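Why run this: before we spend reagent on co-expression, it is cheaper to look at a predicted model of the complex and decide which construct boundaries make sense. The entries below are exactly what would go into the expression plan.
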Amino acid sequence: MTIFEKIQYTRSGKRPTAAAYIDALFTDFIQLHGDRRFGDDSAVIGGIAMLGDIPVTVIGIEKGRDTKDKIQHNFGQANPEGYRKALRLMKQAEKFHRPIITFVDTAGAYCGIGAEERGQGSAIAENLYEMMTMKTPILSVVIGEGGSGGALALAVADTVWMLENAYYSVVSPEGCASILWKDSAKASDAAQALKPDAESLYRLGIIEKIIPEPKDFSADTEKDAFFHSLQVELADEICTLQSKQPDILLAHRYEKFRKVGAYDRNHN
Amino acid sequence: MDLKALFKKAGNTLEGGVRIVKKRNSTLACPRCGSEYDKDSVLKNYWACPRCGGYFRMSARRRIHFLCDADTFQEFDRDMVSKDILNFPGYSEKLAGAAEKCGQKEGVLCGICKIDGYDTCIFVMEPDFMMGSMGSVVGEKITRLFEYATEKQLPVVGCTVSGGARMQEGIVSLMQMAKVSGAVKRHSDNGGFYLTIITNPTTGGVTASFAMLGDVIIAEPGALIGFAGPRVIEQTIRENLPKGFQRSDFLLSHGFLDAVVPRQELKGYVGKMLRIHA
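The model came back. Tokens follow.
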């Protein structure tokens, strides 16, 4: 598949959404609602659960399965209250020393009048700011679409993994093509240029691991095997992160983001 | 002034802001009301139109001239320039063009200065360098500034103007949002004071990171401030946006700004804030 074909595949609805991951990987999931400020955004689902014998806080951006469900979850495009709910649950996790696992799958934060009125930019900024010093391990998995700031707001993590066909990008290829080349039909070229695929991000040092995907998520045996192996890997990684002293964990997290970027010097 | 100028449509701007229309050699025309002035009378009025008060777009150097005490600004990392990390089509040419257009090497100026006699770190984004977009260099320079301020226990004053994260550096630009926010957090945890001055326009990844993280956040009047740009929102919801949407007063009334401060009063406001936090 080309990068753009992969992106189209992440949007096809033929892949498990965050709710399916929560269902398959954890036991005793108890969903918690609301940001305690304005409302409950169903584009973001979260709560507490067991990963094997480890209590964890789980948060996911949920796109919904069928049409009705998609509308209910606003197609996985969160409003500010979604990000604020996530932050509330993360702070709760920090208090009770629970590791945090997030599943990222969004075309981007919602663009709307209400979202701006309630401070979409401020809500995302707060998450980046607070997550950087959250004194508990954070592991994020980009399972489908990693749409810009709306994805990053749940992915300032110690460890970031991506599914093989997932993408994670500063801008949608359509948006990029229409801004730069005034032609959204050039989305495929933009996708190639933006290099938002898992392999490119791994090479750039942005993510720690690429998770291989089954060829077909609708085949039950393949899907079960996929979830089983992911569950083992998640538990392993959480144990590794939990074994680090909190100050070391935070220093590593800061450094992980601190080192991203490249520049030259021009003395002229 | 002539009537034609009065009804003249504003030039194409970043997002509806006021743009300088250069007339003859040293004459400037305010695109909001069309009045023409020589450069000196605009300068005397803090780069605002003496007749209608409309703001001319201000370069980073000029803003430093108005904000900092005379001859106190010492620039950091002036020689830092961007790399075409992704081999993105047309990026190298754009960088060269931007540098030539505005005479700066990148989209932000960082350094230390005095404001009303108080030492402070300062960053000012450059609207004419690829719309103040944030790539590696902008992220790195601002991060270094916050780290320096943390170490020296200095406040930070930051002026934002930006179209958001720079597309041509892809995911690396997006990560700058987390990187700068992390440095702001460390500065804050260390007791450092951070004042944000938001100017027209500030959108996208800059709004969704360090623009909204100040202890005190103020904006110039009429500035467009938002996460999504108004055109994107209009296309998404297929409705016309209400008057004044995403402008400074709108943000003030929704609780996201501490104050809207006119250009002419900015320096006094900042000086007072620095004195209280000194």
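The CA atoms of residues 59 and 86 of chain A lie 7 Å apart. Chain A is about 45% helix and 20% strand. Bring this page to Monday's planning discussion.
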